[in-house]
Write a structure and sequence with these properties.
Layout: H1 3-10, H2 16-22, E1 28-33, H3 37-40, H4 47-55, H5 58-72, E2 75-81, H6 95-101, E3 127-131, H7 143-150, E4 154-160, H8 165-175, E5 179-183, E6 187-188, H9 194-201, E7 208-210, H10 212-222
Parallel strand pairs: 1-2, 1-4, 2-3, 4-5, 4-6, 5-7
Helix pairs in contact: 5-10
Keywords: Hydrolase
InterPro entries: Isochorismatase-like_dom (IPR000868), Isochorismatase-like_hydrls (IPR050272), Isochorismatase-like_sf (IPR036380)
Domain Isochorismatase-like: 28-214
Length: 234
């Protein structure tokens, strides 16, 4: 089977009822990736990315999804990238890491830059997973263990950036046995035109691609009182 055939099948919309079953709240979690003030806030270290996240409406849709998750019993995890002031434990083995060290805004532990950005709501039951190293919000962090303990089999992945962290999270989730769901209008990257290309040519091959509204609608249709302990880990 050719890659073109795979791609044409991958971009075919999933049957509505199949998506509802996939997104049942008791076996699903929502991950927000680097939706922090120092990345997508008004004082971002990456103003071009922050502008795209706001102007595209992606950050607003992340906020809507988080609110919908709170209303329907879906577990929310916020993945935050940060650094110690002394840089101890941080990677330096790629140009991106070395560039981050020179940025005027640093994602320092305990600073305002690593707080979840407005308008994304944070509830007491949300889990915040912080990392000091690497490119992925999943590899080498607590995300996998937390999802398994919660009985989650489906992970909805949102946030930034479509250039690096989002595809990294999708690949890691799939490799660990989870089903990845990507609301394509709730992620952002630079330039803005890159995101739909990444979705079409890469993410659609390994994840269920949908919209934020469809995810929220599925949660509302299938909402139940969570009983996560009865769901086997992947």
């Amino acid at each position: 089977m050719t890659q073109g055939t795979l791609r044409s099948r991958a971009v075919t919309p999933r049957p509505r009822e199949d998506l509802v079953e996939l997104l049942r709240p008791e076996g699903c979690a929502l991950l927000t990736v680097e939706c922090q003030r120092g990345v997508v806030g008004p004082d971002s270290a990456l103003p071009e990315l922050a502008a795209v996240a706001h102007e595209s409406g992606a950050l607003g849709r992340v906020a809507q999804l988080v609110a919908a998750a709170h209303d329907t019993g879906v577990q929310v995890l916020h993945a935050v990238a940060e650094r110690r002031a002394d840089g101890r434990g941080a990677n330096r083995n790629a140009p991106l890491f070395r560039a981050v060290e020179r940025l005027p805004v640093r994602q320092l532990t305990g600073s305002a830059a690593v707080r979840i950005a407005e308008p994304v709501p944070v509830a007491a039951e949300d889990l915040v997973v912080r990392r000091l190293h690497g490119l992925s919000p999943i590899a080498g962090t607590d995300v996998d263990a937390l999802l398994r303990n919660l009985g989650c089999r489906t992970l909805v992945i949102t946030g930034v950036s479509a250039n690096v962290a989002i595809p990294g999270a999708v690949f890691d989730a799939v490799n660990l046995g989870y089903t990845a769901v990507v609301p394509e209008d709730a992620i952002a990257g630079v330039p803005a035109s890159y995101t739909p290309a990444m979705v079409r040519h890469t993410l659609s091959l390994v994840a269920a691609v949908t919209t934020a509204e469809e995810v929220a609608d599925c949660w509302r249709r299938a909402a139940v009182t969570p009983s996560r302990s009865s769901f086997p880990a992947p």
